[in-house]
């Protein structure tokens, strides 16, 4: 991890650091597996039907692949620039492509394909490149690449359009005569074929104050020198609180900010936060020591009132099959790995860098009912340092929708929502689907070049770091083997005939059924 947050220091070692995490997955779909059934049941892996590779592409992807109809579509790095690429799902052949603008990506937010159905046509909204120093708002038919023509085209710099109800929205700045006209909030009017400015009453409080969307209607903004959190449902702001009052002193959205809605009707908001460690980064201190348990936290809030329901300190980065901040919700139970002892020391080194060292760390995993906060089960995990060494170069296996793969003290095990353990071979095959780490890439717009107006540069790293791959059971090392069809079903791909992964070398399409005529 490299950090440029203070402009003077960058991390070169942070294996057990719990900060600077940006994204976590609260659910991975998959088939239900019960470990309470009789052990006489025949394991599904005995009916081994291997999938086959339908096609592969050679490209550097910087987003997940989205499959819509007969199209597989993703963002990729082509040379030094960003592009959207759409491929035929059956053959892998290119259908269309277009240059996109990667320069305005929010820090830590990877490119995401946003698709919406309008009058029986699927459209993707994205920031396109434009002659001069700005970008433009584009909409294209997913199947053909044909642009949806809007009447009011303009120079624009802002966030990538996102789905809001039955249309697209975005926030940014419009430019006229090479001058920005101030922050605007736009919504696409399909009928009038125009991007229209939202009325002030329809703009969330946090966005009015130039805030940043953190997901699920939660917005972070600054009021003088205090960071605030607000929650908006529809166009109504339901609550507004100081960020540090939600988490703890020293916490900031800069060092990790992800929110998801869960529970019945999304009535519980789960938020991850991390300590900003400002006294080290901003006060030019040579050495600072923190408790690992104080560096990260997950809080559960009542969505309507903002009242805290419960919290868990010390959430650990990447644990077994848990992505991101090491936590995941299945069937109303949140499982999270957390440090219950240990310390982290940051020390300045030469060349304006710092090193991170963690000592005496121990960790556990806990299952928590998302609404009540009741602890359903708790388990000790393997030695975190040995686990970290073992995971070097290894992937993170996909889990099912009712269990996780966790590094328990007695070894890697399947753990279901009731906390019951089972051997790995009871649920997964020898070759399993997994996520592996990829490099971040420096991208910019060839149209814009390396300079851009305002305070932005037209270049920067992408923050898409997960690639889908295949790993060996137990070692979790990547392999070229092809998993059985049941492995795809376990991971949630039940009805698909073709599954397309975003791999380290490009797209890979796996066929679940025999090819026609064979």
Low-confidence stretches: 1-46, 450-459
Sheet-strand content, in percent, reads over 45%
Structural class: mainly beta
Shape summary: globular
What's the Cα radius of gyration?
A: 23 Å
Give the % helix: under 10%
Task: Tell me what the structure shows.
The structure is a single chain. With 518 residues, the chain is mainly beta. Strands 2, 3, 4, 5 and 6 form a five-stranded antiparallel beta sheet that branches. Strand 5 (81-88) and strand 6 form a beta hairpin.
List keywords for this structure.
five-stranded antiparallel β-sheet, 37 strands, about 525 residues, about 45% strand, 5 helices, mainly beta, disordered N terminus, about 5% helix
Q: Outline of this structure?
A:
This protein has 518 residues and is mainly β.
Chain-wise SSE layout:
Layout: E1 52-56, E2 60-61, E3 66-68, E4 71-78, E5 81-88, E6 94-100, E7 115-118, E8 121-129, E9 135-141, E10 155-158, E11 162-164, E12 167-176, E13 179-189, E14 194-197, H1 205-208, E15 212-215, E16 218-223, E17 226-233, E18 236-242, H2 243-246, E19 251-262, E20 268-275, H3 278-281, E21 287-291, E22 296-302, E23 308-313, E24 327-330, E25 333-349, E26 353-369, E27 375-380, H4 384-390, E28 396-397, E29 403-408, E30 411-416, E31 421-422, E32 431-437, E33 442-444, E34 459-461, E35 466-472, H5 485-490, E36 498-502, E37 507-511
